[in-house]
Amino acid sequence: MFEPKQEYSTDMSLGQDLAPHLPFLRRYARALTGSQSHGDTYVRAALQAIVDAPEDFPRDVDPRLGLYRTFQAIWSSTNDEIENRDAGDTGNEGIAQARLAQVTPRSRQALLLTAMEGFTPEDAGYLIEADPAEIDALVNEALEEIERQTHADVLIIEDEPIIAMDLETIVRDLGHSVNGVAVTRDEAVAQAMAHRPGLVLADIQLADDSSGIDAVKDILAEFSVPVIFITAFPERLLTGERPEPTFLITKPFQRSTVKAAISQALFFDQATVPA
């Protein structure tokens, strides 16, 4: 439901309208900041802004657009009140660190909004205050940057052969290498230990009822590597209530979505931005 819970009564109908879109805003925020904690903190700040001044929420657009627009306003502006608060408040400190770093330029915002979140150029333009032609130019700029990105060895953890083949094709077309395709937890860990990947693409549910999440936990216990999870039920991993993935792709996926997620995960990894 709409957060923070103790404030629902201020505008219950608005909260109900926004609730279905919150998981996907978390997905965008995490990809934008490269961190679950930073992304979720920004989402909470946006929700608090709506609770504090529901009359300022844009009512002339679709609720999802209004929600993302409010989030973008929080992200794009320097919030002195948040940044100057007590550093002991880890939530506010997270916002300050993510905002001051300014690690995701407008070109990548445009790419994430269109390729990952599925907004039209017109809607993306509304969200970041640009016209559709500028959005197209920004997306092209981001794609050109991706072409210059350092290539990685990728481990694919996926038990459905057709999906694994699709992912392998996308990865190779982006100029990366595939150093293994695993279908179970044990196989994934063994392959990762034998040939340390620079990126992991992991399905949640694997053959023999093992878990891609558990496989990734085992791998991360040995070394650090960026991870993108793939699932048909993204809402289950976008609650903001526990440690959850930073990068998440929804099945069935579009090629552009996978491309944007891979490039953003590697963008943060190569920039050595802490998650």
From TrEMBL:
One Pfam family of this chain: Response_reg
UniProt-listed GO biological process terms: phosphorelay signal transduction system
Keywords: DNA-directed RNA polymerase, Phosphoprotein, Transcription
Listed CDD domains: REC_PhyR
Keyword Transcription: yes
Domain Response regulatory: 153-266
Family matches, as SUPFAM superfamilies: CheY-like
4-aspartylphosphate: residues bearing it: 203
GO cellular component, one term: DNA-directed RNA polymerase complex
Name of the featured protein: CheY-like chemotaxis protein/DNA-directed RNA polymerase specialized sigma24 family protein
Species the sequence originates in: Sphingomonas prati
Taxonomic lineage: Bacteria, Pseudomonadati, Pseudomonadota, Alphaproteobacteria, Sphingomonadales
